[in-house]
Automatic annotation (TrEMBL):
This is Prephenate dehydratase. InterPro entries: ACT-like_dom_sf, ACT_dom, Chor_mutase/pphenate_deHydtase, Preph_deHydtase, Preph_deHydtase_CS. Its EC number is 4.2.1.51. It is an enzyme of class 4 (lyase). It comes from Priestia endophytica DSM 13796. It catalyses: prephenate + H(+) = 3-phenylpyruvate + CO2 + H2O. Coiled coil: none annotated. Pathway: Amino-acid biosynthesis; L-phenylalanine biosynthesis; phenylpyruvate from prephenate: step 1/1. The keyword Transmembrane helix does not apply. Residues 202-279 form the ACT domain. Residues 3-183 form the Prephenate dehydratase domain.
Amino acid sequence: MKKVGYLGPEATFTHIAVESVFKQITSHPYRTIPSCIDGVTDREVDYAVVPLENALEGSVNLTLDYLIHEKRLPIVGEIVLPIRQHFMVHPKYIDEWQNVEGVYSHPHAIAQCHKFLHDTFRNKPLHEVTSTAYAAKHVYEKEDEKIGAIANEFAAKKYGLQIVKKDVHDYDHNTTRFLILNQENAPLEQTLLEHNGYKTTLMITLSENPAGALHRVLSAFSWRNLNLSKIESRPMKTGLGNYFFIIDIEQKLDDVLIPGAIAEIEALGCGVTLLGSYPYYIIK
Ligand SMILES: O=C(O)C(=O)C[C@]1(C(=O)O)C=C[C@@H](O)C=C1
């Protein structure tokens, strides 16, 4: 049976993403995103599932940077999960939840709920922890402290907390994209869902920075009618102003169009690395 690593403990959003897509696997929680990725390179697990981007808050930079600068693993799939954040407390504080002395959650979850936190818990300390499920577990274990967590419904049930305010994220269309990584670039064997399409992800570095360099790179996709669903720049970490670009193309790697675009971009003196060509799964 294949093993899948995820950001733990049990009942994180990442865990839900794993359980919604993979079939017949054992799943293994890791404490941090880098340790989850290391789990694949150390051969403890076959796949790692890591959050990449949230619709409200943007990229999970830790994932992107660790993947690009530390452990370059092929992307073999993507999962898109709807995210509903709830505020929860230990059952003994149900009636006084508005008087909690601190709120715990993952930094991305806190960022997705700023309006709620500002309106309800202004000036109360916000504690960032490694995941939403970790926050829920912590709040249950510290039952003598009047504290609350932002996490999902599954975590409330798993760790015995009571949801006192549902849907505390700031905007309705909250979703997070997760990447599936595998050292051998092996596609998923069995899935619970049909895929919804394919993407191809490239990393591009501009040779130098002449006027119009990025424009010329993008036109290699545009005149081939290759639709891009994302373009993101991240620091190369070699000096201020040096960036690489991550580009998602909305189709599978073919024999003609994408190789043609890559050859054209390389001829411009830019570096191109294929990070993966993979199916994506949208969870309703
Ligand atoms: O803490 C969790 O539950 C996670 O799975 C991590 C994570 C993230 O890193 O963005 C995943 C989805 C949500 O956007 C909030 C947190």
